[in-house]
Task: inverse folding
């Protein structure tokens, strides 16, 4: 192979699940088999076919393979052959079998036919199948014909010609892919998994703040199983922080007459010193607002995800 049109060629070994990578383009080996070569001479003495024939393995242990040879150009009639390829052939009684997938002693058993191959009918055909409905066998057929060694020739009956087994080659099927989006897809999948893990580990809680007539009402709801006690403490801290901010924004009684508060600030408390305070409530139980105008409400038995969408704590 060549890494570029101007690069020097180099040899590589293709293996299953070990693709060849050339500048991001991957070449996978997805299949292989034997392709024995034949030379077919028709009844007029003309070479009608000369080349390899791909075979499909019938036995993965020994790579005994089935082949089909179609010779539509043969004269005076078309020829077709069924062939059984045996990579390492040994006799087994009255039969021959292959005992090893390597081509240590390759032979071929040939079953010849003559007639119409049906190639002009317009019907699609497979190169691995031979339709014998319009063909007749040439000579006496046997389930175990004598195999041909490399270089052997079989004469066909009725003067139809001859077929010679000339050698053995191999075929492979490749899948070539170029997928520049693999890394972004991997990163997106990793981000989705991380987000899912975080959604299962982070406590989910909600906080509402409602301001009405100068009073702020704070509500909270936790949606995590068994997280009510921890959220009550966190909610109390939120209410305390809001009270502190509200108290800091309220002008003191010592404000000079000429220093009016800004329009965005709430009016100063005009109660007399002897009036009772409006309320001093615990941040996690609610009640009347205190001097800061903050009231906190947290559900004592917070639901764990069954609250209706959009429902506020004070409406439940």
Result:
């Amino acid at each position: 192979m060549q890494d570029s049109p101007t690069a020097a060629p180099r040899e590589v070994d293709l293996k299953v699940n070990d693709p060849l990578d050339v500048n991001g383009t991957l070449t996978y080996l997805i299949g292989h088999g034997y392709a024995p070569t034949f030379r077919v001479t028709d009844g007029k003495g003309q070479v009608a076919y000369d080349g390899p024939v791909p075979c499909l393995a019938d036995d993965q242990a020994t790579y005994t393979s089935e082949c089909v040879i179609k010779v539509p150009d043969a004269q005076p009639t078309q020829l077709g052959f069924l062939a059984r390829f045996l990579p390492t052939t040994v006799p087994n009684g009255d039969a021959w079998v292959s005992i090893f997938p390597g081509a240590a002693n390759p032979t071929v058993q040939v079953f010849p036919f003559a007639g119409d191959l049906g190639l002009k009918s317009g019907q699609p055909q497979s190169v691995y199948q031979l339709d014998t409905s319009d063909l007749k066998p040439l000579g006496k057929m046997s389930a175990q014909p004598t195999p041909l060694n490399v270089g052997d020739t079989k004469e066909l009956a009725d003067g139809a010609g001859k077929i010679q087994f000339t050698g053995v080659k191999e075929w492979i099927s490749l899948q070539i892919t170029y997928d520049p989006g693999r890394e972004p897809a991997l990163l997106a999948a990793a981000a989705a998994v991380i987000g899912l893990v975080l959604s299962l580990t982070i406590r989910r809680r909600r906080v509402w703040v409602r301001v009405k007539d100068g009073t702020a009402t704070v509500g909270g709801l936790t949606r995590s199983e068994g997280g009510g006690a921890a959220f009550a403490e966190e909610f109390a801290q939120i209410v305390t922080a809001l009270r502190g901010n509200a108290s800091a924004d309220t002008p003191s009684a010592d404000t000079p007459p000429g220093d009016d508060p800004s329009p965005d600030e709430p009016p100063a408390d005009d109660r007399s010193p002897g009036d009772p305070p409006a309320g001093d409530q615990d941040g996690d139980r609610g009640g009347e607002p205190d001097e800061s105008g903050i009231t906190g409400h947290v559900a004592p038995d917070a639901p764990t995800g069954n609250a209706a969408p959009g429902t506020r704590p004070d409406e439940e």
